[in-house]
Specification:
Layout lengths: L7 H16 L1 H6 L7 H37 L1 E6 L6 H12 L1 H6 L1 H29 L10 H7 L10 H24 L14 E3 L4 H9 L1 H5 L20 H17 L1 H9 L15 H4 L8 H6 L3 E3 L1 E7 L9 E7 L18 E5 L16 H14 L7 E6 L2 H9 L4 H4 L10 H19 L7 E4 L5 H22 L4
Parallel strand pairs: 1-5, 1-6, 2-3, 6-7, 7-8
Antiparallel strand pairs: 4-5
Helix pairs in contact: 4-19, 6-8, 6-9, 6-11, 8-11, 15-18
Bound molecules: guanosine-5'-triphosphate and magnesium ion.
């Protein structure tokens, strides 16, 4: 711009700025030297240009951080709480399946390996019981019963005894066990729990274990000999000894016959072992899962068990429903006792707590067999209701595992025996549920510093269809409460 076209106002502003420049020691120090050579000038201008670029970058990143911070403030935060095995991660998977289905589908490959590992884990327990029985009683040959075996069988009613066939099956299944140990070590390096070493698959939160699993179990990875991948160990029969699909399919017939065997069933029954009630139970589906073409169904993924270790943050952008595009953060916590200390930092600014409480009146905690599960759930519920940090949060109670409660009551297990205060009220699903629901309601009323509505659902989180219908209602309730708080409605 030539001086001719500058306004009076601009010119006087420049004079003031120049005056300021010569008064200000910093500006003086920044002035180019009087005898600056053209090369020095070019260098100086380049440096100034670079400094300005970096400064712009810092500004942009600060603005982005602010934007993310504001978005998080606007996002909906939900915390899943409850004791270990109460169904928190299962509820999270239901949420993904219902509202962010494409995300759910993307993780399918990782879950396939988990289902296979779950199946192997049940086989491991089965083999342990078989081994203990064999160690305790002499093994008999199947075709030529001895007088000793006839005599010992006479003590049992009905008489199904383990024999050399079972030992053979056990031997043939042993590669599964070594493969499981190796696979868990390689694929889940975070598979560590001081409370229950090597009992259950467990991953540290946010360790990217799903991506690790997907990478490590993909066919490309297995066919690679690169050092970053699992090296394939190919047996004499051409089978890959590291690949759970191959090893399981080779063992399929033995797995099925062992699980269906009346002698094994009897041993389990006598030892009071109900594998069917253990988390991640897939033995009844061995025919399908041990198949070489196995692909997990949605129901398999929801039922697959991985113990949560720490606190996992899951970010969702809703793909459907009344507020598509809305951003949610769901925190899934590890529920065993040693992990509860990590919950509190996540209490800040949380809109809703979904509290999972199975009415497991006849079970004890895995980490402490002296503590009744239902008592522990009630203790935790009281803590949550009374917490000042959660005073403004909406509490939503899921009386989960209703299917198990139903089966327990139908099996004739008496509530009164475990909870004397239940008295002689009918030992059926309706009355038992009502009784404990009222207990939870009363504690919330008594312990909340401000009154809040009591939201309670009876759930069976492995039933994806029924859970989805409940979650739609929960989602809408949370959204409404959130928008009201933000004065949008
Ligand atoms: N039968 C039945 N099983 C359920 C139900 N909900 C969850 N499960 C199973 O119970 C086991 C434990 O569920 P998770 O969701 O992993 O439990 P969690 O609360 O996340 O446990 P931690 O991560 O150890 O704190 C899994 O194998 C689930 O498939 C239910 O309503 N009925
Ligand atoms: Mg979990």
């Amino acid at each position: 711009m030539s001086t001719k076209f500058r306004s009076k106002k601009t010119m006087s502003a420049e004079i003031v700025a120049d005056k300021h420049r010569f008064d200000d020691p910093l500006s003086l120090a920044m002035l180019p030297p009087k005898d600056e050579s053209p090369e020095d000038r070019t260098k100086r201008l380049a440096t100034q240009h670079e400094a300005a670029r970096i400064s712009r970058e810092i500004d942009d990143s600060l603005q982005e951080s602010k934007r993310l911070f504001d978005m998080r403030k606007k996002a909906i935060k939900v915390l899943l709480l409850g004791q270990a095995e109460s169904g928190k991660s299962t509820t999270l998977k239901n949420f993904q399946l219902a509202f962010t289905p494409s995300h759910f589908q993307r993780e399918r490959a990782a879950w396939k390996t988990i289902v296979q590992l779950n199946l192997i884990s049940s086989i491991k327990k089965l083999l342990e019981v078989v081994q203990d029985e064999m160690d305790a009683t002499p093994v008999r040959k199947p075709s030529t019963p001895t007088s000793l075996s006839r005599a010992s069988s006479a003590f049992r009613v009905p008489t199904h005894a383990l024999n050399a066939n079972h030992q053979q099956i056990r031997l043939r299944l042993s590669p599964l066990l070594s493969m499981e140990a190796a696979l868990a070590r390689k694929l889940l390096p975070e598979n560590f729990d001081p409370e229950r070493p090597s009992r259950e698959i467990c991953v540290r939160a946010n360790s990217g274990w799903k991506a690790t699993l997907e990478r490590a179990t993909s066919p490309e990875s297995r066919s690679s000999t690169g050092s970053r991948h699992i090296r394939p160990l190919t047996g004499g029969d051409g089978r890959n000894k590291d690949d759970p699909t191959q090893v399981l399919s080779a063992c399929k017939d033995d797995i099925i016959s062992l699980w269906k065997d009346p002698a094994v069933k009897e041993v389990l029954w006598r030892n009071n072992v109900r594998l069917e009630d253990s988390p991640g139970f897939f033995l009844n589906d061995a025919e399908r899962i041990a198949d070489v073409n196995y692909e997990p169904t949605d129901a398999d993924i929801v039922r697959a068990r991985v113990r949560t270790f720490g606190v996992e943050e899951h970010k969702f952008i809703l793909e459907n429903g009344s507020a598509p595009g809305s951003e949610w953060y769901i925190y899934d916590v590890g529920g065993s006792r040693s992990m509860r200390q990590h919950w509190v930092p996540y209490f800040d600014d949380v809109q809703a707590i979904i509290f999972l409480a199975p009415l497991a009146f006849n079970q004890v905690l895995e980490e402490d067999p002296h503590v009744n599960r239902l008592e522990d759930s009630i203790y935790l519920w009281k803590e949550v209701c009374a917490s000042p940090l959660l005073a403004k949060s909406t509490l939503i109670l899921f009386l989960n595992k209703m299917d198990i409660l139903d089966a327990t009551l139908k099996a004739g297990i008496s509530v009164q025996k475990f909870v004397p205060s239940y008295g002689d009220a009918p030992n059926d699903l309706e009355h038992v549920t009502k009784y404990f629901k009222e207990k939870f309601r009363a504690y919330q009323k008594r312990l909340s510093s401000k009154q809040r509505p009591f939201f309670c659902h009876e759930t069976s989180a492995i039933d994806t269809r029924a859970t989805s219908a409940i979650l739609v209602g929960v989602r809408e309730g949370i959204l409404r409460g959130h928008l009201q708080k933000m004065n949008v409605i």
